[in-house]
């Protein structure tokens, strides 16, 4: 009788284990003996869809790009483990903060497409692994190390840091349509921004100027301006915006205008020790300087390991994400 009860208990535990596994992430892709779960696959698929929102690309191309990102994720994680590298506690704390903030904004959406908070942690950790590998290859005493002056030069030439108050020459109605303001209204806005620039020259802080600007527009005046970063190749701002800000002196203000927007910009020194901009973006600079060589190395890692797609799982993930995004 005891044997029967014991065997029943084992079967019960085995069934529970099977049920638990069946409700968890499925294998979407394998590389050698490594397996990538459907949760990580869903994350990278969503990223591909976000980056291609304005492009008319096929499902096949979307799947192809997703598979490439997932294979890179698997290679990075394996290489990091084999290299014996580590990430320090401060990096881990930063990752945890980023995950918490991202989950607070997108958590419900992520859950609807099969992504957990733990999934986000795995993604952020893999990004940190990639940075660690990159720095081990191209900095300090590495064989192919870049001279620190070269990194600083790239940083100086390709990044600007600033605060900006933004005005608009067009209004957007509830129907989503834009209406251009009259010449009189546009001139009034330009005069207002030039006046605010004069206030800055009188040692009034840009945050104080911004607070007054919000009050004048019947908005919450307690808001503070964030320090913005713009990389040279970015298209977030109008054409020539980067060059104009880059040409400004540190701690100077200027009014810049396009056909759509007007900006009161206060530029910061790239090497401001209080802000530590350089250390924050140094790894990104190393990557851009060595991008071609690093990607070549990455492509060669584990090239003899066979990669296999689980098409049924990938198609299910694709349909789920597309269905959620369409709502």
Structure, explained:
It is a single chain. This protein has helices at 2-23, 38-51, 59-83, 89-112, 117-138, 148-158, 183-201, 206-216, 241-246, 277-289, 291-300, 311-325; strands spanning 27-31, 34-37, 159-168, 170-172, 178-180, 228-231, 253-257, 261-268, 307-309. Residues 1-22 have low confidence and may be disordered. The protein has 327 residues and is α+β, with helices and mostly antiparallel strands. The radius of gyration is 26 Å and the shape is globular. The protein is 59% helix and 14% strand. The strands form 3 sheets. Strands 6-3-8-7 form a 4-stranded antiparallel beta sheet. A 3-stranded antiparallel beta sheet has the order 2-1-9. α2 (38-51) crosses α3 (59-83) and α4 (89-112) crosses α5. A hairpin with a 5-residue loop joins β4 (170-172) and β5. It has 2 domains: 26-146 and 290-302 and 310-325, no CATH class; 152-268. The protein has 12 helices and 9 strands.
List keywords for this structure.
alpha+beta; 2 domains; 4-stranded antiparallel sheet; 3-stranded antiparallel sheet; 9 strands
Record the SSE blueprint.
Elements: H1 2-23, E1 27-31, E2 34-37, H2 38-51, H3 59-83, H4 89-112, H5 117-138, H6 148-158, E3 159-168, E4 170-172, E5 178-180, H7 183-201, H8 206-216, E6 228-231, H9 241-246, E7 253-257, E8 261-268, H10 277-289, H11 291-300, E9 307-309, H12 311-325
Antiparallel strand pairs: 1-2, 1-9, 3-6, 3-8, 4-5, 7-8
Helix pairs in contact: 2-3, 2-12, 3-5, 4-5, 5-10, 6-10
